[in-house]
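Incident review: delayed structure delivery

Summary: a single-chain prediction request sat in the queue longer than the usual turnaround. Root cause was a stuck worker, restarted by the on-call engineer. No data loss occurred. The affected request and its eventual output are reproduced below so the record is complete for anyone auditing the incident later.

Affected input:
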Amino acid sequence: MKSKPMWMVRAEVGGKYFEDFKSKSIVAIGWIGLGGMSSLKTREAFTQAVAKACPEMKKMQVAISGGQAFRFAREMKIGDRVLTYDPSRRVYLVGTIASDYFYDPSLIEEDPNCHRVEWQGEVPRDLLSVSTKNSLGAISTLFLLPEEAAEEIENLLAGSKPSKLAMEPEDEDTAVETIFKDSQSKAFEFIKDKISRLDWEEMQELVAGLLRAMGYKTRISPTGPDRGKDIVASPDGFGFESPRIVVEVKHRTSSQMGSQDIRSFLGGRHVDDKGLYVSTGGFTRDARYEAERASIPITLMDMDDLVKAVLEHYEKMDIDIQRLIPLRKVYWPA
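Output delivered after worker restart:
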């Protein structure tokens, strides 16, 4: 027999309304600007209502918010399971939805859209497996739990012993590290997405900013016929002092640079020059071979290399360059 859906409904940031949820036997969300949502029937109607109430919102935010409001008012049903979280005590309060959706600002003025709930008990977060903790870590106000996580919470609520994974620190550390590597990989790809969306001039500025963060002074040459710009980086900024690094940047994410491109780049170089060729589309095998046997030292930097260099030197970059690729630091348990 399939178990009932289990929903997470956050009691606002920091569990602000957790005690209200518990004492008034409800779960609630905001969207005061929408008023009562009983007349809204479809997901599209909810999305349009959010767009009208919050014109400053971006399109994706409107879609997400409209979807959450729709799920709360239309998909959450009497008999479904629900939980909310108290971050100060690190416990999840678990119960059963006992009413259809209703609007009542007298219960919580800022969160007037409600369901009645029969609360049954609490489950400490420390008893949960890492996979369930991870599934409960979403930032969304409202979401549906995976079946495995819901089953684990139900078993703990019924008095079952915690899973083995929840009780062994070494296993938990391994699981946390796996989640970290997965998150790190996703973040790396998202950064590449942002860099891919830069235009030609912004890409040139990013590479020049990276070189300045590495201790060089840079000079960008006038725009060429192919919209490329050579960058000269050196200790003095003029190229008089060594090392003099000549940089070519090609921002063509769907086109690899070939051996002829490398030969053309090397053709005008001086014997004491150092070369850096940046291509967001990567390089062919022949291009890399051409660089290996070049008469001057040359480094080929593809998109992955560029992102790694940006991450390594990001905090030393000019503020204007950081604004091209705005990043935030995240702390993770080691």
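Verification: Residues 181 and 217 are 35 Å apart (CA to CA).
Action items: add queue-age alerting; document worker restart procedure.
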